[in-house]
Amino acid sequence: MTEAAPSGANTDVWLVVPVYNEAPVIADVMENAARTFPNIVCVDDGSSDGSAAQIKASPARIVRHPVNLGQGAAIQTGVEYARKQPGAKYFVTFDADGQHQIDDVVAMIRRLRSEPIDIIVGTRFADGRSESVPLIKRIVLRTVVLLSFRTRRLGLSDAHNGLRAFNNTVADQLDIRMNGMAHASEFVALIDHHEWRVAEQPVTILYTDYSRAKGQSLINGVNILADGMLHGRTRK
């Protein structure tokens, strides 16, 4: 269990959590996260399983989409909400299913505070951590990177990692238009277009039976990349 942060710590950090039908786990995940990061906004993306009630019973704030718009739209909504809050300086996209580790977020925020970086993307492919990644998902992630010249040029090895931390520069310019999972490819395009200073952070992803049941297949992973290429924006 993550140790609670001192009172008043991390009040300039906002966790943005897209939520779609995560009622079995969302309350516990938010309770744990709030011990270190008191500012959390969950975007309930049209859930039909009681997720909203679980969020309301947790320390997190809630914003609701009346219908499911996809993770990209939920992240954009959450960031727009968070960046309007007094004192907000740093933002983290954080999964609702318990895969992401708060200790990794702490390390990412520490780097944002001390290094000339605008955005940090988590990677499962450092320090031998890829061994914990299910084989089919490893193939998906490696294939996406292999087929994306932009991702390789930026030095990213795991661009579809949902754990990202960034500063106000990124939050103010963020404009995700791809509503589904292909928003990850769009994030990479935005990093490139705006020339945000980017770095990677080795992170541990906890794969439980619950989270594995929602994993992407190889075909879906390639489709994400194709969608990103097809709908990629030409920026002038």
Give an account of the 3D structure.
By secondary structure, this protein is of the alpha/beta class. It has ten helices and seven strands. It has helices spanning 26-34, 51-56, 71-83, 102-114, 135-147, 149-153, 168-173, 183-194, 209-212, 218-230, and strands at residues 13-19, 40-45, 61-65, 90-93, 119-123, 164-167, 198-202. Strands 3-2-1-4-6-5-7 form a seven-stranded mixed beta sheet, sandwiched between helices. Strand 1 (13-19), helix 1 and strand 2 form a beta-alpha-beta unit.
Strand order of the largest sheet: 3-2-1-4-6-5-7
| Computed Rg | 17 Å
- Percent range for β-strand residues: 15-25%
Low-pLDDT windows of residues: 231-236
Order of helices and strands: EHEHEHEHEHHEHHEHH
**DSSP summary, beta strand count:** 7
Q: Helix segment count?
A: 10
Cα(first) to Cα(last) distance is: 47 Å
- Mean pLDDT, all residues: 84
| Sheet having the most strands | 7 strands, mixed
Helicity level: 25-40%
Tell me the overall shape: globular
